[in-house]
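README: folding subset

This subset contains proteins for which both the sequence and a predicted structure token string are available. Records are stored as plain text. Below is the entry for DUF397 domain-containing protein (71 residues), shown exactly as it appears on disk.
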Amino acid sequence: MTQQELRVAVWRKSSHSGTNGGECIEVAPGFTGVVPVRDSKDPLGPALIFPAAAWESFVSAVKAGEITATC
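--- output ---
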């Protein structure tokens, strides 16, 4: 994954983000095998790249209440 790919990616804000300016994370779906994640307050900052399976496991655990995610 290149910096250029991340710059032109379509980022989606977490549904857990508040309405007070975006204090959470954004993900860029659509990449094969990986999910880029970044701080919504710093869109020009770094992104973490997670294997898609690990990201799905994390999201499933949050939805099941096994992990508490707060922003």
